[in-house]
Amino acid sequence: MNVKGNPTRTIWPGPDGTSVEIIDQTVLPHRYEIAVLRTLDDAAHAIRAMLVRGAPLIGATAAWGVWLAMQNDASDAALTRAYDTLFATRPTAVNLRWALDRARTRLSPLPESERATAARALAIEVCDEDVGINHAIGQAGLALIRDIAAQKPAGQPVNILTHCNAGWLATVDWGTATSPIYQAHDAGIAVHVWVDETRPRNQGFNLTAWELLNHGVPHTVIVDNAGGHLMQHGQVDLCIVGTDRTTATGDVCNKIGTYLKALAAHDNGVPFYVALPSPTIDWTVRDGVAEIPIEERSGDEVTHIAGLGPDGTVTTIQIPPTGSPAANPAFDVTPARLVTGLITERGVCPASAAGLKNLFPDQSI
What Pfam families does the database record attribute to this sequence (predicted)? Predict the structure, then answer.
């Protein structure tokens, strides 16, 4: 996608041949900076501290992290250490485990002398696959937007509400929830996006809005609690969100607040779709509420907020009174019964075991 008119990915091999470069998402939208990862610990920090975030990008970064580790020590012990170090960074996104399992399976049978080269090839493969998957998700979702556009009065845009950032910044390129939006916009279909702020880290304000602005997609930022009101007044045609883990039965785990949007959409008859690449499906889990681990992040993310001050500097301030404790569950689970459909690289299906099985007959459920 575009940054200041330049096609850009979120992660790429550094020009020195030994490092990896990423967009530091912690300083967006007010600064655009590139961070360089040179070691396994750098990659782990990038995931844990959310310099990169979003399930697909976390998986891609983990793959590159294994390559960084193998350059210095390609022993079995080092491979195990790389796996364990990266796996411990974030508990919810299943792509992390998927990428690490794939790396371990690919590298373990190889002699140590071949592991670094194979790890680099695998990381490139994971990234290119992600781009292809997300483009295909966009094609599947584009048909939904096109159908709604055909029913709208001439000149009126399709109004789409999204939550958090399931854009290209959460993947390697295109995004999941945003891929249909970008493809509709590029095809000349009038679209307008309602962008939730997504407290407490404000990924909607900081990332989704920045993405859409750079690509020229019409959008409006709103507070998290405005979505239900907009739906009640007919100002939302459909919701499209992403997911960090989807169960074999169609439950979806996404950024905290997604469940409330789904409830509002269900109450107002607004279609609620979830866009996901197949590596995000956890075929071992059937009950999302009971089985998916929910990351509990620092309360400081709730009590403090960063923004651009009048002097042009980014400042962090405290909001609630000193001494008030804060809870910070990072995700919630939306039951399949509230999901209109799942948008995957293989097409759109009902959020159910049967729907997923129909698209992915090769998987045992």
Answer: IF-2B (PF01008)
Top-confidence residue, 91 or 226: 226
Active-site pick, 244, 251, 282, 332: 244
Strands 272-275 and 238-241: parallel
Position 365 scores a pLDDT of: 66
Rounded distance between C-alpha atoms, residue 13 and residue 30, angstroms: 25
297 is in an annotated binding site: no
Identify the bridge partners of residue 342 per DSSP, sorted by sequence position.
Answer: 274, 349
Any idea which residue has 């939006």 for tokens? Answer: 181
Any idea where the domains of the chain sit in the sequence? 2-128, 140-359
pLDDT 10s digits, 94-115 = 889 999 999 999 999 999 999 9
Q: Is 55 annotated as a binding residue?
A: yes
Give the pLDDT confidence of 275-312 residue by residue, as tens digits: 999 989 999 999 999 999 999 999 999 999 999 999 99
Cis omega (within 30 of 0) for bond into 111: no
To the question of whether residue 203 is assigned a binding role by annotation, the answer is: yes
CATH of 140-359, one of 3.40.50.1240, 3.40.50.10470, 3.40.190.10, 3.90.650.10: 3.40.50.10470
| 244 included as an active-site residue | yes
2-128 CATH choice from 3.30.930.10, 1.20.120.420, 3.10.20.580, 3.40.50.2000: 1.20.120.420
